[in-house]
Please model this.
Amino acid sequence: MARRRKGRDISGWVIVDKPAGPTSTAVVNKVRWALDARKAGHAGTLDPAATGVLAIALGEATKTVPYVTDALKAYEFTVRFGQATNTDDAEGEVIATSEQRPADEDISAALPAFVGDITQVPPKFSAVKIDGERAYALARDEEDFEIAARPLYVDSLTLIERPDADHAVLEMVCGKGGYVRSIARDLGAVLGCNAHVESLRRTWSGAFDTDGALDWETLETLARTPELDAYLRPLQDGLVDLQMLPCTPEGATRMRNGNPGMVIAAPGVEYGDTAWAAYQGKPVAIGIYRSGELHPVRVFNLPEGT
Model:
C-alpha cells in the first residue's frame, strides 16, 4: 500500500517572485513546506540566477501545470556584448572576447531572424538529457558532446533599451522550451561580437505576472502561518486559456468517475476542443468536447471548501 504524504490537502496556485540564487526546485520545496502542502510542482524552470514569475501549483492544481507550461511567457533580459561564456550567462567562464560593438540599428535589424518558428541549440550547461545524462553534468566533466537543435516559437523579440555600448536590454515573448541564453549567444554570433546574458527576469507566464506575487522575504516571514494562505490562488487561474463549460449535476458525477458528462455548450467551443467543466463554479475536469459532452482527460478531486 502506498504511503500517504503528510501535509494539508490544499489546491491552488502560488505565484512567487523568485530572487536570484535558489533553484526552481528549492523554491517549490520552500513553498510546500511553508504552506504545509501535501503536493507541489512548478510550471516552467528558471535558472538559479534568473528572477521573476515562478508559478507553483499545489495539490490538484498540479494537473493544470501543462496548460500553463504551454502558454506564452515573457522575459526581460540584459545582453552583454563582447564576451562569450561557457554557460552563455554571467555565471560562466569567458571563453571568447571581441572589441566590436553593434549599433542600435544593427541589433534591431538582426532580431527578426529570431522571431516566429525557429530552432535553437540549448546551452551545454542546461538540464537537457544526452544519452540519459544531464548536459550540465557532462559539461562540468568537460565531456565532448553535441546538443541537437530544438524548435521554439518566438512571438516577439524587441530592443527595449541600450544603456551603453556593452549592453542591450531586450524583451522576448515565446512558447515553452526556450532558452534566453541561447538567444543572446546566437545574437552575438550574428552580430560578430560575442555575447551572453548578464541578467534575466521572467515578467509573466501565461495568466500569471508579478502583480501580487509572493516575494522571498514575505515567504520566509509568513511561513507556517495562516496569513500565508492569502497568497493561494484558485486552481482555475491556471485554466484561463481554456473555455469553461458549466455542467449538470449528473454530468459532474459522471466526469468525476472518468466518464463523459453533459455540459452546456458555449460560443466558440467546437467539436474536439479542449475545455474544462465546472459545477457551481468548482472545477470538475479538463477534457475534450464532443457533441454536448466533455470527455475527461484530467479529473479534479478537490477538498471541501476549495
